């Protein structure tokens, strides 16, 4: 079983789903980082998202 502290000696790789500037700041520090362009379904409108979910099953 690996210990939690084992991860601190490894290269950090980040998938950023938030502010793009955060990803850029990591890259500036030579951290491997990828920006994911994600938005909530239906633009965050919960009623529209429920309707889409019903349509898609």
Explain the overall architecture.
The chain is of the alpha+beta class and 57 residues long. The chain has one domain. It contains 2 helices and 2 strands; from the N terminus they run E-H-E-H. The protein has a two-stranded parallel sheet with strand order 1-2. Helix 1 links the parallel strand 1 and strand 2.
Spatial extent as radius of gyration: 18 Å
Q: Give unreliable regions as ranges.
A: none
Outline type: elongated
Oligomer kind: single chain
Helix content: 25-40%
Number of strands: 2
**How confident overall, as mean pLDDT?**
89
Assign the structural class, choosing from mainly alpha, mainly beta, alpha/beta, alpha+beta, or little secondary structure.
alpha+beta
Largest sheet: 2 strands, parallel
Q: What is the count of helical runs?
A: 2
- N-C termini distance: 40 Å
Protein name: FdrA domain protein
Organism: bioreactor metagenome
